[in-house]
Amino acid sequence: MESLQFTSISALLRRLDLPAPQHPLIVLVPTGNIKVHPDDVGKRVVTNLYKISFKIDFKGKIPYGHGYYDFEEGGLSFTSPNQMSAPTRDIADYEGYTLFFHPDFLLNYPLAKSIQQYGFFSYAIAEALYLSDKEKKLISVIFDAMLLELENNIDHFSHDVMISQLELLLNYSNRFYNRQFLTRKTLYNDLIYQMNIYISTSFNTSSHLPTVQEVADHLQVSPRYLSDMLKSLTGMSTQQHIHHQLIEKAKEILTSTNATIAEIAYQLGFEHPQSFNKLFRQKTNTSPLAYRKSGY
Question: How far out from the chain centre does Cα 138 lie?
Answer without folding.
Answer: 22
